[in-house]
Amino acid sequence: MRNFLTCAALLAATPAAFAQPQGAPATVAIAEVTARGNAGADLASDMSDALTEQLVAGARLRVVERQQIAKVMKEQMLAQSGVMSDEVQIKVAQLVGARFIVLGTVGTKGRSYVVSLRALDSSSAQVAFSESLKVGSDEQVEAGAKQLARRLEEKLLGPSIGGSPAASASGDVLGDFDPALVKDSAQDVARSLAQRFPKLTGTIVNALPNGTASCSFASGQPFKGEFFEISGRDEVTEQETRKGYFLLSGWSRNGCSGRVKREPGGVIEDGDTLTSLPLKIGVEAVQPGPGAQPELATLLASELRAALDSLPQFQVANDPQLTATGRVSGPRGRRSVDLQVIDKGGNVVQKVSVPASF
């Protein structure tokens, strides 16, 4: 009965009494963040902290201090009144001088988490913002909350023009996946590619005065445009030395040919050794297939570049000899990464398909 009378008295308050001064920054109050499903209260508290931190950093909204909200709740004896209706929440916003009051939830959905945010306009009693975001792990909840806070700010006030860096979009990549597993899978894909591009050794069969040479490879399959180092015994020092470089222009099972670039003083002879150099490779944007989000494809492409660059067979470059392109698809935990590697002529050199657990 006491809670009913308290709410009734609160609803009887005059909205005009809580109007904000004209020209003042819009004020927002974060009423509560509740945990649902298997999400714990600590996670809800973390989300609330992240919301406050982002809105304060954005500096476009004035955020009501929690102590002020708690004081009003205590004075109006609402702390034990249970879940409050939107109408009562709006009156609380007016009592603390807030134009908007924000309600959040964090819950579980399968292996994922869902963070939701809703804002009520105390001047019109309308829902001013409502949006949810699915993230892959509890570690992404805070980043997801900050992303929703930025979207809330833009919805209420419009895009920031020349705003502070803190108000701009962050570099957090969020979605229904575990970023750590994406990194692991990118390394698996890179290793799979490396196995298809082993270090090759061949032999100069016939070096010609015009700067060309024929060659042979006992094993492996080089590709047109691949670079090799030429080495052999120096006639003067009788030591094994680098003599120059070889660019493969054609290859078949019966033999190969290419162009030679000599080192100063180098004399290239029949029988000299060809050793493949690290391949210059580029990674085009990986496309999201069915079941995959664009954010996942973007992160996978970034991690794949880093993974390839860490392997001795590859060198990620802006002017690549080879380009990897493909897509990621499938539901979480049962995804696949399908890539093909093409040369400068558009020919497919290799294909890989790797299962992924992210």
Describe, in short, the structure shown:
The protein is an alpha/beta fold and 358 residues long.
Please tally the helical runs, counting DSSP H or I stretches of 4 or more residues: 7
- Strand-residue proportion: 25-35%
CATH architecture of the largest domain: 3-Layer(aba) Sandwich
User: What is the distance, rounded to the nearest whole angstrom, between the alpha carbons of the first and last residues?
Assistant: 52 Å
Report helical residue fraction: 25-40%
**Which topology of the largest domain does CATH recognise?**
Rossmann fold
Number of DSSP E strands: 17
- Major sheet characteristics: 6 strands, antiparallel, barrel
Which structural class is indicated by helix and strand composition? alpha/beta
Please give the order of strands in the largest beta sheet: 6-7-10-9-8-11
Mean pLDDT figure: 86
In total, how many domains does the architecture comprise?
Answer: 3
CATH superfamily label of the largest domain: TolB, N-terminal domain
CATH classification, class level of the largest domain: Alpha Beta
Cα Rg: 32 Å
Low-confidence stretches: 1-18, 163-171
Described by the principal axes of the CA atoms, the overall outline is elongated
